[in-house]
Amino acid sequence: MHYLILSDMHGNWDAFEAVLNVALEEDFDCILVLGDLVGYGASPNEIVDAVKSLPGNVFVIRGNHDKVVAEIDDGSNFNYAALAAAQWTTRELTPENLDYVRRLPQGPIEVADGVTICHGSPLDEDTYLFSNYDAYDVFQRHDAWLTFFGHTHIPSLFSLEGTEVEVGVLRGSRGTIRLRQDVRYLINPGSIGQPRDRDPRAAYLTYDSERQVVRWRRLDYPISRAQERIMEARLPQLLADRLQTGI
Fold first, then answer.
1. pLDDT, tens digit, for every residue of 83-122?
2. What share of the chain is helix, strand, coil (3-state, %, to 5)?
3. 195 neighbors 222 (Cβ within 8 angstroms)
4. What is the layout of strands, in order, in the sheet containing 156-161?
5. Whole-model pTM above 0.85?
6. Which of 61, 63, 105, 217 has a CA 20 to 30 Å removed from the CA of 126?
7. How far, in Å, CA of 63 to CA of 119, rounded?
8. How far lies 33's CA from each of 53, 64, 157, in Å?
9. What is d(CA 172, CA 26) in angstroms, rounded to the nearest whole number?
């Protein structure tokens, strides 16, 4: 099986379009979308329409911003900018697209034998996995061999061999990870719409289950246009500024 893994588009159509234009040149058996389609960016309808139109076998789960936009969560733990963008997005989405976001399922979901997807953590969709301690807790309480997760906006990998957890950050324009059956993995593709690893380029992954190879990729996109859309929508300036720096 050949998988495309996408996460955290956050209403940034310019970034998502750049990824789709390149990624969909390949044929995929399955596409995995790890949540946060909306929030922050000013093109929520374009994102939702594109996700709804993805070809083939597609699994989509909700993220924490999707929940706030869908009014499943009140956003009381959001900062001012995030909450303002979520409330604007709720008003901006078409009725059909808002209903689609409201119906997104909660992770984790098993997409193949031993392979699951979630937004934050398989234990709690809103939890951030940053440290080896966080990862070890997941490995002890969730038995999937391979889990793809999002939420942190940082392309990263946690692996468990025996009782030792290794942490790695996926840096550079592209790279390859060769998986081993005797090692378990938590892998984050990073964010398409709002990276936070000081690299502003859109990030995504592919996974070849026959060869047991995961590949990461970073792509440039017209950041200035995404910033213009945010300002035209009168969303907080911070949301536009951070796209330039990737923080």
1. 999 999 999 999 999 999 999 999 999 999 999 999 999 9
2. 30, 25, 45
3. no
4. 109-112, 115-117, 146-148, 184-188, 156-161, 164-169
5. yes
6. 217
7. 6
8. 13, 14, 18
9. 21
